[in-house]
Structure prediction request, 284 residues.
Amino acid sequence: MRLYLLCLLMSVFPVAAHAAIVQQEMRPGIPANAEYLIGQRSKPAVLLLHGFLQTREFPTVATLARGLQDAGYTVLLPTLSLNIPNRMQSLACEAVHKHSMEDDVAEIGRWVGWLKSHGQRSIVLVGHSFGSLQLLAYLSTHPDPAIKAYIGASLVEAQIGTTSRQALIAQLEAQIQNQQRTLVTQRLSFCRKYTSTPDGLLSYVRWDQPRLLTALKQVPTSVQLIMGDADGMLGQGWLKALQHIQVPLVIVHGGSHFMDGEHEFDLLDHTLKFLEAQQQGSSQ
Prediction:
């Protein structure tokens, strides 16, 4: 009877029975957490990363994660700490930002290591928006045979508005060289006023379109980009630039930056097709 009740509960609450919140200390006094959705061992694990200043609860990645688990994939859905202990909420643009791309990349590495320590030897990195950029930054400096593929949805560069990037980089480098710790306020991504330390801001500003294109061409794994042609957050000519370097690219007609509404199914469908093709290729 007890076994019957357990089976009944598992059938009624299948997701809850196969999900857990896990935690790691990223730096002294900075724990971070992730949701771990357990799937089939025969399929690769997916590390799915949210966009700029968001959390794993952001609808685009949360919906995609559930769809991937329903299809049998194990999914690790971390929230980057942004140097806030056990961060659970999105971080406001107006906050004082004391995190950097190097911090983000280090945390991605810690979560990849966590998956490997739990028996995952085939991992696919999937990002949305700025999360796609952060995963690409990780791949460009941390090649790992366990990482089998990369999917970037709504991939964007570190956008800084109409400011001269070259002049801004020179300004930030001078402040760092002179050991000036005065906070800098600058447009970054969707934030009109983003306040950060000079070195933290510089770590993101360096990731312009040319650097992204170079990193994409050098990715040591299979690549798939999924972009919407109604994405109002993309820089001018970005889709054409991606097509020019002949990176594998799927364009979702009518898809916004967040792939919301009916296009959330397109995002899931293209992601699953790519994952299935990767599995078939590895089994041959």
The chain has a mean pLDDT of 92. The longest strand covers residues 19-27. Residues 159-206 form one domain.
